[in-house]
Design goal:
Strand content: under 5%
Distance between the termini: 86 Å
Number of helices: 1
Helix content: 55-70%
Radius of gyration: 28 Å
Length: 65
């Protein structure tokens, strides 16, 4: 097989393989969006306020009295 023939054979395969890859990525994206949408719908509208955690003894952000 000449180098030109090998290049032509690769070009004939690259089109369908590229299309398959794009279709698979599109399907995966749609499935991920649907899954995330379901998860977001299950979240509560508001979360309870976080409890104040006591500061560590050596924490430089806490003013000393």
């Amino acid at each position: 097989m000449t180098p030109l023939a090998a290049t032509e054979a690769l070009q004939q395969v690259a089109g369908p393989v590229g299309l398959l890859l794009v279709v698979l990525l599109a399907v995966a994206t749609v499935l991920l969006i649907r899954n995330m949408d379901r998860r977001l719908k299950r979240l509560p509208r508001e979360f309870p306020p976080a409890a104040a955690e006591p500061a560590a003894p050596g924490d430089p952000d806490v003013p000393r009295g």
